[in-house]
Design a protein that fits this description.
Layout (H helix, E strand, L loop, with lengths): L20 H13 L3 H18 L9 H12 L15 H5 L19 H12 L4 H21 L6 H11 L35
Helix pairs in contact: 1-2, 2-3, 5-6
C-alpha cells in the first residue's frame, strides 16, 4: 500500500555503505552536484567530520582518517571530483565484492558423525592390523560416542557404535564390547537409585 507523502526505505536506492546511514549518503550525493570544486572540497571535509563522529571507536587507528576518505570515494562511486588528501585507489579493493566461496556439499550417510569421522572410517579400512590401528579405533569409537551424545538425540548406545563402526568400515573394524572400554567421560552412567528414607520407630 502506497501512501502519498510517505517514503519507505524499501522504495529507496540501496545504500552503498549502510553503516553511515542514508543522511550521509544524501550529503555525498549533494556534494557531487556542486559545480565549484572549492565548494565540493569544503562539503567533503564536512562529510568526513560527520563520518568520524559516527565511528569514534576507530579514531585510535593509525589509518582511521585514510579509511574515511576511502569510504567517501566508495559512496560517491569514485565520481566526486575533489583533491583527496590520500591515495584512494586502494579503496577499489574494498568496493569490489569477493567471489562467492564454493561450499563443499559432499554427502555423508549420517550427519551427526560429521565429515571428519568418515575420513577416519576410510583410513581405518586400509590400515594394517596392529597397535596404530587399535589406537585410531579407540579414538574413533570414543569420538563417535561423543558425537552421538551431542547430536544423536541423546542416544549413545555402545552396540550402535560398534554396529556403525563395522558398517562404515565395510566390516574391517569389529569392536568387541566384551573387552573394549570407552574413556571414562564417555562411559554410560548407571542411574542413581533413590535412597529410601528410614522411618523412625515410635517409642
Amino acid at each position: 500500500m502506497n501512501i502519498e507523502g510517505l517514503d519507505y526505505n524499501t522504495q529507496r536506492e540501496k545504500l552503498v555503505m549502510p553503516e553511515y546511514g542514508r543522511e550521509v549518503q544524501n550529503m555525498v550525493d549533494y556534494a557531487m552536484t556542486l559545480e565549484s570544486k572549492q565548494e565540493r572540497q569544503r562539503c567533503a571535509n564536512t562529510i568526513i567530520k560527520v563520518m568520524g563522529q559516527m565511528v569514534p571507536k576507530n579514531k585510535e587507528s593509525i589509518d582511521h582518517e585514510r579509511k574515511l576518505w576511502d569510504h567517501l570515494a566508495i559512496m560517491s562511486g569514485f565520481k566526486l571530483d575533489i583533491d583527496y588528501p590520500y591515495d584512494v585507489s586502494g579503496a577499489l579493493k574494498i568496493a569490489t565484492k569477493p567471489e562467492p566461496m564454493e561450499y563443499p556439499m559432499q554427502k555423508i550417510p549420517v550427519r551427526h558423525y560429521g565429515k571428519m569421522m568418515f575420513e577416519l572410517f576410510e583410513k581405518l579400512k586400509t590400515m594394517p592390523a596392529g597397535k596404530e590401528r587399535d589406537q585410531l579405533t579407540r579414538l574413533t569409537a570414543n569420538q563417535m560416542k561423543h558425537n552421538l551424545s551431542q547430536w544423536g538425540h541423546g542416544s549413545n548406545d555402545d552396540e550402535k557404535i560398534a554396529s556403525d563402526l563395522a558398517r562404515f568400515t565395510d566390516g574391517v573394524i569389529q569392536l568387541d564390547l566384551a573387552t573394549f572400554k570407552f574413556d571414562t567421560q564417555y562411559q554410560q552412567k548407571q542411574p542413581v537409585q533413590p535412597q529410601q528414607s528410614k522411618k523412625r520407630k515410635r517409642k
